[in-house]
What we know:
Oligomer: heterodimer
Distance between the termini of chain A: 64 Å
Shape of chain B: globular
Distance between the termini of chain B: 25 Å
Largest interface: A-B, 29 and 36 residues
Number of strands of chain B: 2
Radius of gyration of chain B: 24 Å
Strand content of chain B: under 5%
Strand order of the largest sheet of chain A: 1-24-23-22-21
Helix content of chain A: 10-25%
Structural class of chain A: mainly beta
Number of strands of chain A: 25
Number of domains of chain A: 3
Number of helices of chain A: 6
Amino acid sequence: MVLKRFWKLIALAITIVAILVTYFIHTALVVASQFPDLEIKTISGDKSVLEHIAITGDYYQEEGNSSPLIVTLEGSTYYEELSYFEKLEPYFPPNEATKLKDNYRNFMRGKMYNPSSFFDNEEHLAYVGAEISDWSTNYLPEYYLEVDVLNKETNKSHSFQTDLPGVEEVNHVDVLKAQVVKENLYVIVKLNYLLADQYVDEIKVYTMDISSGQIVGDQTLFDPSEQSNKDRWSHLSFLNHHSEIGSGDNLLLVKDIGRDLEVNQTDGFTDEIKSELLERAFYIYNISTNQLQELQIPEEHYEKLLLNEFNLSGFVFDTHAYISYVDEGNLVVLSYSLENYKLESQQTYSLKELDMEDSNIKIIDNKIYAVENDMKNTAKIFVGDVTTGEVLYKGEIVSKQNSDDRNDYSLNFYSVKKN
Amino acid sequence: MKNFLKLTNFELNRFSKIYITLIGLTLVMQTIGMILLSSSYMSDVEEQLAMGNSMEWITINLGTFSFSSLTRTFWFGGPIIIAIVTLLIYVFFIWYRDWFGKNTFIYRLLMIPTARINLFFAKASTIFLMVLGLISLQLVFILLENELLKILVSDAFREDQSLKQIIFNFDYMGVLYPNSIIQFFINYGIGFMAVFVIFTGILFERCYRLKGILFGILFAGVSLLIFISPILLQVTILNEFFYPIEIFILMAITGLVVISGSIWMSHYLLNKKIRV
């Protein structure tokens, strides 16, 4: 009786529920099978060197599906497979700054999760962000620094904003490092601006008095006018600031000077601009002592460092600074002592056997990690000990499923992190 | 409850002819579109084959035929737009037909010995069911039309697409068919909240006539402000204070506030202020 009376209502309701439930089960299954499960296969050595290590990158498929991903010893995690709520987290993969959010939820509100903007030690958690307040009439951004320092003992934070002294028409401001030393906050920023028709980098070290919120010191590390040469370009970069919240005092800097050459193509129509690196110098800047020390590079390495402009990595760890580059299938690491700034050891590892032409390099806890970055469906991993030169591990990231029928995708790994 | 079901069933019945027409129109137009487009493509292919061009040359120059070749045309999107517009109009018409139909039917509806808010719920449920019904049937139609495509176009010239790719390649289907079930509830929850608010606006007009239009618009404006207030705070005075999950929770709360406010206001209007 009831059925007969309400048949339209019941039929419509059943249709809706049945179809939509099937659709969402189908979608969940499609999403789950879309991405291959990856694992790390050992070629030689002990897997344990990869414990607490996360390799991050992107997955691309020919049909257009792509997703950022993380690979660890436990397997692979794809961003696209995360739940709706996990996807609400603004950063994937999480970095050191996003992890601070779990412990300092209130302090981390409204901050940009750029690890180099943070300083973390037992007493303080500090943040310095370069923010844009306005745009000037000639479309240049006007920057100010947003500063917030948390005293972990009292659990009180002190925040203030400050203009950048001595900075006028600037193209870009990047906070490279923040460091609390006693009552002062040291902030290192890189400015990029136009000087005599040439874009130059300027590195400034500001000293701030935390209690008053005033800038009490303003220093420029390299004279920008020296860089302003019509025929040359010049870049200053920090090699160890990107993904870590360092509490160490030492920063590794590289100063590159080069020129652009117009190369006539054989077809006679197009001119290609080729960049040539002419000089390359490495410096250690110590924040507490405010000293800039140049590192001496042996002749045989210097030539190769000039030839391998982009295959360069640098790290500061504990008592050493490391400069590393890849040349003709060899991974070279130069270790400098931070006590006397002298070259202490040099290690060369052959990557030829592993055929890792393009790799990303990272030094974590005296170990050097190289992960192949060649847009294939596998990626090789190499781990070496930088103090002894020993090869610790060789392995490969592969699909768990038999990948013969799944070679329509490529993996692009760009970073190795401590998890 | 039984009264509510009776009323819902009654409302469904009243619109069923137009509703079935909409379903039929969608299926027929999309099927005709598929037949016309694929046969015109296949005749182009045969022409090229007759001219002695290789199959490879044809797939490069004419392109392959896939479901997206249909979804981009009016044959596919047209009936969907017609259905959306019809249902949008019916959101208003579902109330006004009771006043402007022959012998003011609303008089009898209001005299039914049941809570008057059941009328409101029955009409809202009817709209929800019809929207969700069309949404789910369209999914079945896509699958049927995809099978039809496999019959009409030979393998060599066909690029098979999965349901997910078809949806992904068709812009506004991403909103109608989200990947995650939570996103589905968010999209349709917002839609149904809007239906509740519009219903309350209509009741304002039915109670106070011309002046009521103003009240209705005001009510809708206030509802919108309440609903998006977490975002307004976030971008203005609070400056990115909330974490995304907190914004989600806050908007779920403000959404519920708007829905309950709308139901409460409609309950009051139906019981105390309604004019026949």
